[in-house]
Amino acid sequence: MSSVVTIRSATSQDQDRIWEILEPVLSTGETYALPSNWNKEEALAFWCDENKETFVAECDETILGTYFMKPNGMGGLSHIANCGYITGYKARGRGVASQMCEHSQSKALELGYTAMQYNCVVSTNTGAVRLWQRWGFDIVGTLPKAFNHATQGMVDAYIMYKKLS
Amino acid sequence: MSSVVTIRSATSQDQDRIWEILEPVLSTGETYALPSNWNKEEALAFWCDENKETFVAECDETILGTYFMKPNGMGGLSHIANCGYITGYKARGRGVASQMCEHSQSKALELGYTAMQYNCVVSTNTGAVRLWQRWGFDIVGTLPKAFNHATQGMVDAYIMYKKLS
Prior knowledge:
Two copies of one chain form a homodimer.
Chain A: E1 6-9, H1 15-26, H2 40-47, E2 53-59, E3 62-71, E4 80-87, H3 96-110, E5 115-122, H4 126-134, E6 138-149, E7 153-163
């Protein structure tokens, strides 16, 4: 049994397993600015839509995490990539999010992006904030008490940015 | 002849005149993170799409400016409105943008939003920055050298935010 995590493009065969990763995280309403009551079809329509590249992190045919990449804007901002990453609860602590972040930066450069931006890193999600900072992302903005956290009420959200090339 | 500017919801009858406002501004690539080479259909498909409320500022049956409003996010950010405003070149200096900004804040409250966010105020667009600041918007973030300005190269872009209620 290998313990190597590989990251590859998602296929339509992965949808059930991607939903298994998304559902418990989205339903908390604590870390993602996405509806906590989305059903499987709504969540997958967003996560795997045709304007995004969607990837899965896999180990021994088990999907441990997933991320998407898309342009964060158009025109003068079209060189900036935006990503969203979710690691399955069972796979926490294995560096999967870090590996997806690294992979996404390489992939972004390959696709011609020169920067990456996260538009809503919830300030209470301290593990994510620290991880992105370790990867060289700066907090370039704070939306004050802007994120309606399911259990903590209105909390700050950060905009994080990294120049890639 | 009245000189009162009124703001109302756009209709399909306004499309040609909205394009006359958008085209010269978008084509410069200096102030909007939208493709500078969009044709009429592409620009109107964006500006007047079904997920936005689109308004026009009108005086004596001439359209002087237009703005849209949409949610800036989903889930925990769905209470934040996002708007884009464009005043026609011929109507500059008459306070049309200011009037549209005021109108949009009232409309946002009416629609249940509690805050408003602009995601890309180009730093070189000093008139806009000052106007939004006068209306109580704060610069809550700076995307460093992130906007590819058609004539000035990479310039800072601001994220501006105002709590409405």
